[in-house]
Each structure stands twice: as structure tokens, then as C-alpha cells.
């Protein structure tokens, strides 16, 4: 499995990143994320590293990621594979990626924190337990057709926004096809 290409464009004034992966058998996967402008999805490709490395593990293939990723992220994905290998009795796969050391001392703004938020009971529990320590609640909505269904995905996520705003935090909304494409 290899990340072949990442393209950025706008869809209804929102930023969309689309990654193209190719497996060792030649099968191609196209995964997109769409977020509000200003969310800065294109600042790094770490989410695509997670998706590709996970799919490669499931396929039992080496994963090649041509864009450097944070060394902590790469280490954590390798640790996650070791854990999965114990659960599923499937060996970890090789990951070929250049890593960058995180330069936390160069951060120009205070670190922010967030948690995934679906509006379900687990998300509400996390919000209650960690609420005072969170700056953002992050919601994902799945849509399989980017052009025809993205706006509907954001409308669905808007149902959660009034709750998030009532807590004084920012709601980060992302629409993706990852669940059906990979």
C-alpha cells in the first residue's frame, strides 16, 4: 500500500483534500476529507498516514508514505499495530516513512486540545469529564459521494453545533468517505 497523491481543492467554499492510495495488488483507494476553510487540513498529511498505515495492516502489506510525518505519530502507529497483532493474531507490517522530530519549542501559539464528538452518550461523557480542558469538539460525518452529499453532511453536523457552542468551545466539522472507501 502506498500513498500516491494528495490533491487540495474547494467544494462549496470548503477545503477538500483527496488522497489516492494504491495497494500491492493494484487496487486504488480514493479518500477525501472536507473541512471548513480555516481548519487548515492541508497543513500536514498526518491523517492520511493513519488511514494508509491502517489499511496496509488490514491487507498485510508494507506501507509506503512519501511525505514525512511526526516521529511520535509514526512510533504510536507502530505501537498500535503491535497491540492489534496481539488481539487479531496478525503480524505487524513494515512502514516506510521519513519522520520529523516535533519541535514543540517553536510553537507560536498555545497548544489546543480537543476530543471527537458524535453527540452520543460516550461523547457526552467525555465532554463532561474533560470539558474544562477541551478547546474543540471534533465531529466527523460520513458521505460516500463528495459532490452531491457533502453539504448534507455538514447540515447533519450543524445539529451538534448549538450544543458545542453552548459549552463555549469551537466545533470542528469534517465530512469524509473513509468508512466506505477503505
Give me the secondary-structure topology:
Elements: E1 2-11, E2 14-22, E3 28-36, H1 46-59, E4 63-70, H2 71-88, E5 95-100, E6 114-116, H3 121-130, E7 136-142, H4 146-166, E8 170-176, H5 178-181
Parallel strand pairs: 4-5, 6-7, 7-8
Antiparallel strand pairs: 1-2, 2-3, 3-8
State the separation between the terminal residues, measured CA to CA. 12 Å
Q: Helix- and strand-based class?
A: alpha/beta
Large-scale geometry: globular
Counting DSSP E segments of at least 2 residues, the number of strands comes to 8
Average pLDDT works out at: 86
Task: Report the uncertain regions.
Answer: 104-108
What's the total helix number?
A: 5
Order of helices and strands: EEEHEHEEHEHEH
For the largest beta sheet, what order do the strands appear in spatially? 1-2-3-8-7-6
What Rg is obtained from the alpha carbons, in whole angstroms?
A: 17 Å
Structure write-up:
It contains five helices and eight strands. By secondary structure, it is α/β, with parallel strands linked by helices. The protein starts with a strand and ends with a helix. Strand 4, helix 2 and strand 5 form a beta-alpha-beta unit. The longest helix is centred in the last third of the chain and has 21 residues.
Please give a quick description of this structure:
With 182 residues, the protein is an alpha/beta fold. It contains 5 helices and 8 strands; from the N terminus they run βββαβαββαβαβα.
Amino acid at each position: 500500500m502506498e500513498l500516491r497523491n494528495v490533491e487540495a481543492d474547494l467544494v462549496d467554499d470548503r477545503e477538500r483534500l483527496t488522497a489516492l492510495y494504491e495497494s500491492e495488488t493494484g487496487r486504488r483507494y480514493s479518500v477525501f476529507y472536507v473541512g471548513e476553510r480555516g481548519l487548515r487540513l492541508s497543513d500536514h498529511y498526518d491523517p492520511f498516514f493513519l488511514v494508509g498505515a491502517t489499511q496496509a495492516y488490514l491487507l498485510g502489506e508494507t506501507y509506503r508514505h512519501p511525505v514525512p510525518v511526526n516521529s511520535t505519530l509514526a512510533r504510536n502507529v507502530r505501537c498500535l499495530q503491535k497491540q492489534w497483532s496481539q488481539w487479531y493474531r496478525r503480524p505487524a507490517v513494515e512502514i516506510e516513512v521519513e519522520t520529523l522530530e516535533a519541535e514543540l519549542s517553536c510553537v507560536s501559539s498555545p497548544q489546543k486540545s480537543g476530543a471527537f464528538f458524535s453527540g452520543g452518550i460516550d461523547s457526552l461523557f467525555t465532554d463532561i469529564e474533560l470539558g474544562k480542558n477541551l478547546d474543540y469538539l471534533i465531529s466527523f460525518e460520513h458521505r460516500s459521494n463528495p459532490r452531491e452529499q457533502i453539504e448534507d453532511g455538514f447540515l447533519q453536523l450543524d445539529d451538534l453545533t448549538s450544543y458545542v457552542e453552548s459549552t463555549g468551545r469551537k466545533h470542528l466539522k469534517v465530512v469524509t468517505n473513509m468508512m466506505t472507501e477503505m
